[in-house]
Amino acid sequence: MTITVLLVDDHPVVRSGLRAVLDAVDIVQVIGESATGEEAITLASQVLPDVVLCDLRLGEGIDGIQTTAALRALNPAPAVLILTTFDRDAEILGAIEAGAAGYLLKDVAPEAIIDGIQRAAAGDTVLAPELTARVIKGMRSPLPKLTDREVEVLRLLATGSTNKEIARFLFVTEATVKSHLVHIFRKLGVDSRSRAVHLAQDTGLI
Amino acid sequence: MTITVLLVDDHPVVRSGLRAVLDAVDIVQVIGESATGEEAITLASQVLPDVVLCDLRLGEGIDGIQTTAALRALNPAPAVLILTTFDRDAEILGAIEAGAAGYLLKDVAPEAIIDGIQRAAAGDTVLAPELTARVIKGMRSPLPKLTDREVEVLRLLATGSTNKEIARFLFVTEATVKSHLVHIFRKLGVDSRSRAVHLAQDTGLI
DNA sequence: TGTCGCGTCAGTCTTTTGGTTGATCTTAAT
DNA sequence: ATTAAGATCAACCAAAAGACTGACGCGACA
User: Whole-prediction pTM value?
Assistant: First the structure.
């Protein structure tokens, strides 16, 4: 019984590579490729793959997390295995929450990918060893949720804007910006704009 | 007359993909693969490829720029074509300075890669259209060179450290740190630590 | 009908940051 | 031998940032 797989990655080269790797074994069969999340969703609803191998970053359109969520809403829902280069906490957790069966880093050996696909098809959770510790840590100390406004301020902060500039940009007073900052700092457990930005970038919060 | 190519990328999947893409045409022949820069240099000196297709980021060891420089020092020197996912100014310029024949983004079509290899083998310069404007801009307004010490301070700055912390870490007084910062700000044309960090990250300076 | 979170704002106070000027010392280049 | 550049430090000043306290309106939710 072969496992049918749909490949989703915006890089043609990576798709070719995955296809080459997967075509080399009998147990999996690649039944489709797509370059975007949107395309993947429509294609998956037609070809009904057992497993979708999906990049986390998909260029222009929707990202891997949104794609995962949409794929998991299909019936029958494919197992979604996220493939990515980087290991940002927030994104990992986001994909798991969206229903992904697990995660693989792109720099793993071909065998690990095959193995991951089999485990995902069997309904197991697949986590790259390098990531497991991080995921667990992320579970233990989840980043406090920032409000929309706070994230907005944080983003501006990350561009190096001063409070005055942020205030002008958001059409509020500097006092309001400072107020948001106090809340952001408290939630993130830091005491300066620089550290807030560093932490936010480090954890994939922005 | 076929063009011999050596692939350098730390991701097995990408190497497989490139190989699949290149094996599909007669004009190029892949005569080797390596996962690290060090390996690529020794391998290239043995198999003497016409073109080396090299990722900019190579995991643990030396990066694509250092690899390029070493490869160009060989005799006969292969043309080095840099393949990368991201488009950071400083790195692009660094690779060009190190003697790379040009740049390709990983999300291009297979044909563009084939084409790039042929042009590189012919001695042409190959720049992904998306990057040309950036490279020219980088040429026009080159980032002023920071001293080693200044880069060191900038890196600490990027972690969100205060002047006091940086001073402690570098075993100097806060006055010295401030002095370095003034120089950094002047060279980068900014007026705050946050903006300096943002610019540095944006341009790939750190 | 409270009350709770969110976004908005004000005032005060301390700390940090950034600008300026100038100085010493070392090392490298000319 | 002189110069130039880099790293180090000092003292002063103004601007920005951050800590604290308190307040108001609004919508959601129970």
Answer: 0.78
